[in-house]
Amino acid sequence: MADRVRRPRVPPRLRLLLPRSVRARATFAATAVVTLALGGSSAALLAVLHANLLRTARDSAVEQAGKVVELASREHLPSVLAPHGGSSVWVLDASGKPVAVTPDLLARPVAAPPLPNPPGPSAPGPDRSLLQLPPDEQPLLVGARLHDRRQQVITMSVSGPDGPLTVHAAASLRDVEAAGDTTGTALAVGVPVLVLLVAAVTWRVTGRALRPVEAIRAEVAEITGHDLHRRVPVPHTGDEVARLAVTVNATLDRLEDAGLRQRRFIADASHELRSPIAVLRTQLEVALAHPDPDLWPELLADALEDTVRLQDLAADLLLLARLDAADPVAVELLDPAALFAAALAARTADRVPVTAELADGAEVLGNRTWLTRLLTNLVDNAQRYAATRVEVRLAVRGPDVVLEVRDDGPGIPEADRERVFERFTRLDDARSRELGGAGLGLAIARDLAGHHGGTLAAEPARTGARLVARLPRAGSAG
């Protein structure tokens, strides 16, 4: 089995030296990049400057030697050549004796530098072929500017009235070295200063940019479960930090809303549980205070009814908790028409008759128990308020499977069509308690529809209430 490739681990001691904060890392990265860029640019600049100055010195020596060659090809050379361009020129005959020199070499003996391929004495006419030695390999001119440690030497051969001659021109590289030293010194001072300036500016800019982030962090750190009303400051920059602050505040809004809903749910659940428990306790106390066997059947029946209410309420609360936790459930391909027909056939104690119109050919992907509970809650709600009838319709409309439950009761006012889906909400509290409702049926039904990717809403109706659930049809996605 091949060994797994592992990333090289940073030694612990080196890890301690690495910056940890975003501000320090950004400053370090910017400084490193600028240092590398300036270092490379400085080296390239020095190389280009040295090459240009060296070429200039060579061109000056070539120009001076070329003028002497042209003059020697036409006429006899004077013993003293006119200076030009700061180059030293000396002309030697075939025997190596000086024929002409520039004024700066009058008091100093000169000699020919050793050349790899010296031109022959019989070279006809002016020969402008250049022979240039690298500066490090060129020998010093004997007596010529002994204070110059490096020179650029150009050699040309020519035949004229004075016979075969060799023209030597030497350009001093002192200016090249001086310019290089000056530029190098300037870069050695300027580059570190510029790097320090970049580091300081980056440190300050990143500090200003991260200041809102630190303010957000400090504010979030102080927010507790009792301070969910607090919000983080939103900078007026419109950048990523501002969007982060807006997102954090939106998250806090959801947390505050969830906290309020949880507290309200706990309070309502406690209130709903307290009523049947109090009634059940009263019935048991009455049974103990009046040990009359004739009263026990009625008391036991009432106690059983309240116990069933407690059991149903506890089951509803457990189902809501499971829906809120979004626990995964088993899903399968179902035929809602067959499923709802079986559920309606099992209802034998309804107060008013239920008529059903269920279209075939619709399939949904869902949980059998939850879809049955969705229909049961809608029908139970309609049974509480219906006067003479409850209608259940199932149809396929485009990509949706639509379930409608109607009744001929008092209906739902338009202003309350959303409020009826809130937990523990009753439009007629006294009547709902009398009929046994806890205000959780429609809330559970909407959550069940939502967990199946659908919706549940109270829609307008000519008479009574009309609750419509829309579920996605299997195979209709995309």
Structure characterization notes:
With 478 residues, this protein is α+β, with helices and mostly antiparallel strands. It has three domains: 17-222, no CATH class; 223-326, Signal transduction histidine kinase, dimerisation/phosphotransfer (DHp) domain (Helix Hairpins); 332-472, 2-Layer Sandwich (Heat Shock Protein 90). It has nine helices and twelve strands. It has helices at residues 12-17, 22-74, 174-222, 240-289, 296-325, 336-345, 368-385, 429-435, 441-451, and strands at residues 88-92, 98-101, 127-132, 151-160, 163-172, 332-334, 354-358, 364-366, 390-397, 400-407, 455-459, 466-472. A five-stranded antiparallel beta sheet has the order 2-1-5-4-3. It has a five-stranded mixed beta sheet with strand order 7-9-10-12-11. Strands 6-8 form a two-stranded antiparallel sheet. Strand 4 and strand 5 (163-172) form a beta hairpin. Helix 2 runs antiparallel to helix 3 (174-222), helix 4 (240-289) packs antiparallel against helix 5 and helix 6 crosses helix 7 (368-385). It is rod-shaped. The two termini are 44 Å apart. Mean pLDDT is 78; it is low at 1-5, 114-149 and 429-434.
